[in-house]
Amino acid sequence: MLLDRALDAYLRHVTIERGLSAHTVGAYRRDLVGYRDWLTAEGIDDTADITSMVVDRFVADRASAEPPPAATSLARLQSSVRGWHRFLAREGIEADDPTGRLRPPKTPRRLPKALTIDQVERLLAAPSVEEPLGIRDRALLELLYATGARVSEAVGLDVDDMAHGEVLRLRGKGSKERIVPVGSYARAAVDAYLTRVRPGLAAKGRASARLFLGARGAPLSRQSAWLAIRSAAERAQLTAEVSPHTLRHSFATHLLQGGADVRVVQELLGHSSVATTQIYTHVSVDALRDIYATSHPRAR
Questions:
Q1: Is the peptide bond preceding residue 104 cis, with omega within 30 degrees of 0?
Q2: For residue 95, what are the contacts with CB-CB under 8 A and spacing of at least 6?
Q3: Residue 12 near residue 22 (C-beta atoms within 8 A)
Q4: Which of 36, 65, 30 is nearest to 50 (CA)?
Q5: Which residues belong to the active site?
Q6: pTM for the complete prediction?
Q7: Beta strand extents in the chain (DSSP E only)
Q8: Tens digits of per-residue pLDDT, 175-206?
Q9: DSSP letter string over 191-235?
């Protein structure tokens, strides 16, 4: 099959049949367009001509680029290429998968960076509740920390999703839904936003069911949410890098430090495997070690 046709077929598959997010599909598209362009430059325009040696040459070429790519970037690229070829073989478009012997590079284990409880409280208190957008940002921050939601899940919420009282329905990766509790602080912040701010924002734009709206009444974007969090971090004078995912990491870390079972945290985060969640147990062990070192008279 011609490269462009094969690429379009795979992107339709991950979008429609697998239900992946636009963000994830966009990442696949960028990786595979680069792969297609490299193949074209090598004189290959049909997937039938791609052998394991061709794939190996492509990976070696990318690995030797200047500046050298990060191991995580190279691993993601290989994953995109492997996913495409597996699809072609599974659908019978090609007889073989030339990536069968491809092994991803080892990536360094990166522990998630979490804020302390004091830092989180400073961050949540940073938006000014004297300003409409400050009330909205306070609600957004409280909700992210209270639920461990991804920023894409938070900005994708509808007003009706908050109509379940003390629980919230989140739609995660692959359109999987999960129910998470919402604490009293987050509920109060969202209620204040819904009654005092959202009606005015909604009047400025077209009717939208989205919970969080921008200054002009359109649904709040991921980028705008990120900027709101960055602004709150600056106001709170936090020197650490703070992103939407920082609050998700802090949510998980603080739950485990408080005694929550790792499988409960897995369910709340929407992880498909507990192995993904267990990285936070290492953070908790590090925290315990620090407390022991500074508290026990014979620790040093």
A1: no
A2: 89
A3: no
A4: 36
A5: 150, 173, 245, 248, 271, 280
A6: 0.61
A7: 167-171, 177-181
A8: 678 888 888 899 999 999 999 999 999 999 88
A9: HHHHHHTHHHHHTTSS---BSSB-TTSSBPPHHHHHHHHHHHHHH
